Amino acid sequence: MDFKEAEEYLERAGRFGIKPSLDRIRLLCAKLGNPQLKYPSLHITGTNGKTSTARMIASILEVGGRKVGRYTSPHMQSVTERVCINGRTISEGDFAAFLERIIPQVEETDQKTGDPLTYFEITTAMAFLYFAVRKVDVGVIEVGLGGRWDATNLVESRVQVITGVALDHVAELGGTVKEIAREKAGIIKEGSIAISAVGDRDALRVLTDTCKEKESDLMLLGRDFQLLYNLTYGIETGKVGQAVGIQGLLREYPEIFLPLLGEHQAVNAACAVAASEAYAGSLRALSASEVEAGLHRVTSPGRLEVVSLDPLVLLDGAHNPEGASRLANVIRNDLDYDRLILVVGILEDKDIRQMLEVLLPLASTVVVTQSSCERATPAGTISAMVKEMGYDCVVVEKVEEAVKFARTLSSVTDMVCITGSLYTVGEARTALGLRPA
Asked: Domains in the chain and their CATH numbers?
């Protein structure tokens, strides 16, 4: 099996969609020898910020000499992005080889259950096995959706992170913050440590009750660890990012350079620091220099990612109202530009109107596009909504062409912001000549 054949195999599995159950993945992993139990794990969920937080934790732990397996989703440009060891994505050859290695067990599981495994379940099991075979010291594992029924919830994590809870994926997770919090709290294990920046009262009650029931410790931002300050560097300095001060669970980190934009990334960094400390367990096991160096070198492609300064080009995979609000705050408060050319493409299961209400007032020109994802909202549908809301827009259906068009409209003092979904941003990265990372 080569990599193209591996992609085609997974695409065929993709048609089985989202099916909340651990039965299939549990049986598959048992047939593989439960590779997810061969190494300790940290487990991350939350409505927004999961991938960035996972990348921060992994970077911190890697600096100390640990071999760290990182599993995140979705990918933007290549499925290989999902599986990394010490920041290096799995090669296309290894991806195909490890997928081919588990196909007999996948087919046995499908036959046994009569309920075919999904794309996400297959890639998750493959990642678990890859990390076990490569003998990682620790896995940093991001939940795909929710938590309780997510395929990643077979890990026996000693530390969990719930970054925050807001309305998203309501059809699968529930229509209230409380219901969604219950799904995400499903990753909390007996006698573990849960780290969270949750501020909503109902969500916080769910986490508190779950930790009490599981006899686990809940460590909260603002109570047990703190974001002391964050100060954004001006883009014109060429130093993209911010200075942050963090009071962790074990010590204070008075001045860290974080090469990511947005106060929410500073909050994610505080959670990452607390989680890394909780995993290490002592000052001796995790030095201040490891934390500082780990955050200094972290990257998070497609999350408020500045890929050009002249003109300023910003890529952000905001895909729900909370993400759109965070993006808008950064555009308003942290960036200098004359005009904003907004390129937007959103998936059909999202609250499109509420996202547009946040973003459209900031833009001088709006370019509506449509990613190749089968769940992408037709560009014409978004365009009609934009015009109904009283704004003008231009439709350029293919993301690659929309990116080129937006750049032709911009001068060196303007900003092009491409957003709406990680699929849109992924195609934009490819159009801009950026490699998967």
From this structure: 3-296 (3.40.1190.10), 305-431 (3.90.190.20)
